[in-house]
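Pipeline run #58 for the internal structure catalog. This entry was flagged by the ingest filter as a single-chain record with no existing model, so it goes straight to prediction. Upstream metadata was stripped on purpose; only the residue string is passed forward. Reviewer on rotation: M.T. Logging verbosity set to normal.
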Amino acid sequence: MHNVDLVAKAKGIIERILYITIATVSKDGQPWNSPVYSAFDENYNFYWASDQNGQHSKNIAENNKVFLVIYDSTAPEGTGEGVYVQAKAYVLTGEDEIRNALKHLDGRVGKQKDPATRVLEFQGDSPRRVYKAVPEKFWMNDDGDVNGNFIDIRTEVDLLTDK
């Protein structure tokens, strides 16, 4: 498949799928996966809100390296396509950052909430925080064939070059 086709497919998957899976690692090396509702901005930074005491949130506080997968799990066997993202994740603390993230999160599904009034829900004594994953690399799964055997190949794609 041509890289241009893979870029278009990756962008389509990101736009269509509301949930991402975040892979994190605890300080003692235990892996953890968490599916979360997410949104993204024009630079494909991903945002989500989570309990700051959740395992993935604790892991991010200790090690901000994350791996995201955006995949349609309802696709029939052998037809699924996914986007894979190496990123660094951060808890957002500034009011403007949180407001921007909430604008994307609420706007993704058409919620009519005012992000300015919601900032306090993610600061202070509130258990929830807003997180941002800044991508470093993207891959799209590509078809492969080795001696008549199907294999899943990941091909790196650049989503930011052709916005």
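catalog note: The chain has one domain: 3-157.
catalog note: DSSP finds four helices and eight strands in the chain.
status: ready for reviewer M.T.
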